[in-house]
Amino acid sequence: xxxxxxxxxxxxDQTATGRAKQARNDRGxxxxxxxxxxxxxxxxxxxxxxxDLASTSVLxxxxxxxxxxxADDFKRRxxxxxxxxxxxxxxxxxxxxxxxxEYLRYSCDNSNPRSLPQQLQLGLExxxxxxxxxxxxxxxxxxxxxxxxxxxxxxxxxxSLIRCEGSHVSRLYIDEIGRASRDAxxxxxxxxxxxxxxxxxxGVSDGFDSQxxxxxxxxxxxxxLHEWFVDQLQCKxxxxxxxxxxxxxxxxxxxxxxxxVPTTDDVGDPIIDSNGKQLMKRIIDDDTAVWVRKAFELLIxxxxxxxQIARYFAExxxxxxxxxxxxxxxQLLKRELYVGFEFYGKTxxxxxxETGKKTVKHxxxxxxxxxxxxxxxxISDESWQKKEDRLKELSxxxxxGNSNQPNRTTVYPKKLFRPVCAHCGKELRLxxxxxxxxxxxxxxxxxxHGCPLTTYKAVNIVESGLLGVIQEKVFTDEFLRSLITRANxxxxxxxxxxxxxxxxxxxxxxxxTAKRDRLMKLIERDxxxxxxxxxxxxxxLERQVREKRxxxxxxxxxSGSPPRPMCLENVSALLQDLRGLLQEEVSVAAPILREMxxxxxxxxxxxxxxxxxAWIAEFQVNMVPVLAHLSAKRDCPTTDMWEYLSSRxxxxxxxxxxxxxxxxxxxxxxxxxxxxHHKGNSIKTIAAALRTDWRxxxxxxRFGTTGERPKKRVPSTMSRKPLRRLTAAETEEVARLRDEQxxxxxxxxxxxxxxxxxxxxxxxxxxxxQLHESVEQxxxxxxxxFSPLGPKVFHKIRAGIQAGWSTPRIAKFAGCxxxxxxxxxxxxxxxxxxxxGRVD
Length: 840
Ligand SMILES: [Zn+2]
Prior knowledge:
- By secondary structure, the chain is α/β, with parallel strands linked by helices.
- Among the domains are: 12-224, Rossmann fold (3-Layer(aba) Sandwich), CATH 3.40.50.1390; 413-489 and 566-660, no CATH class; 503-558; 677-711.
- The protein has 33 helices and 18 strands.
- Strands 1, 2, 3, 4 and 5 form a 5-stranded parallel sheet that branches. A 4-stranded mixed sheet has the order 12-16-17-18, covered by helices on one side. Strands 13-14-15 form a 3-stranded antiparallel sheet.
- Helix 24 crosses helix 26.
- The structure holds zinc ion.
- Zinc ion binds next to helix 15.
- Zinc ion is lined by residues 421, 423-424, 426, 441, 443-444, 451, 453.
């Protein structure tokens, strides 16, 4: 065969289980030491058997170099799944009659009757006996791979070589049929292949020869026996595992949150099992158990999705793994072991005998075996139940076609509110996401079904509008006081109501039970009468009794005396909690807001400005369930009352309507600007106090006094250097230079490469309180002091003034002009007065 004509053997397993193979391309490859062992065995045996070939290139000399070379060749061929054609070499010695190949396999260390070198040696010896030469290129092996499926690299390579025409191979040697396959059908297929290719299959240990008279019969027998053997083995293993589970022994690897530790007896000696290994037991691993609790908390308290939790776990490298995914988190959340029991046999695996692919299938529940392991509990029953409810809610939200169930936006809120269109009832969707997210009605935006809500509204405008009205109207002591007054009134009325009389109901129940009991006795005594009719009657009575009992329970619950009225102090703390809740993540705050406001219905208002149309939002505030929830969390004494009110669906219809619109700055600032203006502040000072620019202040004052809206600003055509915004560190530097070094803003501006105005604005930012104080008094804000004379001179002047010296004396002492001293004296006086005024 020409060496250019390489036998490129694409093995079946590569195509069939592409992904699995990509992950582990070396599956079945013996490790390096085993390969060298195998190569050495090959060389020694062949040299012994084929002495005349020893000097040719067909059989290299026995030394370390050749052993390494053969081992490397094997590895390369195995990984590439190709077989190099066997070269006869220049000598062209044909001392052998035919060329053969050999296949070796063992499945695992525990069931290893014959190692790979042993199998090889036996095969080579038998081949020599047949005068067949097996070159190293045609030795195939799979290590630690089960024979129950066909997708083994070495096996497929051997089959491909058999199939390949012109390979000169005439025989395949195996130790026994079971080495080639433990699957009966695959063994028969191999027999067919050998026949079809007119080759010969030789079993060295079991004496199989495909050219023998009864070979077909033998093959069927062997194949059947091997499969039966595997079945027996699997059955035994399964029974052993189930027994061990029943006896409380540890048969699982430690799940996440646990670890295995060796057991010792009272004296401290290790406890040994029947296999001579030290027994292991599972204990809670504190390091990872924390994360189990965290996963539950994130799901039920913070309403995170499993995907989110997986990302968080991966980022934190939880348990040393960064490969957390949704599936793993869901598996973790469903593990019953965390609440102190476990199952055995929930699933079973189905193997594809062709590809070796395993599929996990679920067993029916009645086949599961259960055992209690209370010492392994990590999660409380309450959290477990909450988790179950949440997972149920999530799965129903993502199921198709039921509009009454909670949907995706309610189970995973991304926005604080999700208003509905008042015109068509459709929930608003995000017409635009990201930084400029905005709501719109799907129908209105596409002019469908005549919905008039055609405009979009930015999410931040809607949120600030709604939050504003909630803060202003609902989260106030006043609102709460009126709520409590009305609630107390309701409670007093409830207390005065005549209690429902449960007497007659009780009596009729007693009668029914007595009748039923009499019948039961009759049945017991009389064994010959019409029992069937009597039994039916008893069943009917039993149903009636159950119904009456339910009625009675409901009545007793309702007639319970209402809790005592409460006062404002009990509830103020709850208001504080409520405010705190709004600062929480959206996923936590949104459900509470939804419960409080109910559906927020939005309709289109009138066109208000060039910029757009206002929306009118309308909702009904119901604080009772939210307060019940919060007070229960706090263990507050008012919990009973809120729950009582909540169970009676008591609410006060507090309808809130709010106009949601973009408010331009000049409109928002109008009142405040006019107020400060009346105090005699300059436009520039007001702008600094309101943190805006002077133009807006002018527009605000004009709008406030005349109602005139500003015209659209025309951008200046003059190219202007953009204003530089100072960083936080630079802002601090401005304040330091001004206050400590008494620099002028001009000097500071030069140093920081900005304008003096920018420097002054930066100074104001660090002295906001001082600025507001002077603005309230209508004074020009004091922005530190600058003098070319320097701080020392002023220090001397102040010392002189305090000592009560005359102005000329101070001027002479400090080395400055008389007017400087007078100005400083005047400044000190006004400061004293203003500080006095403040004290009063
Ligand atoms: Zn609509």
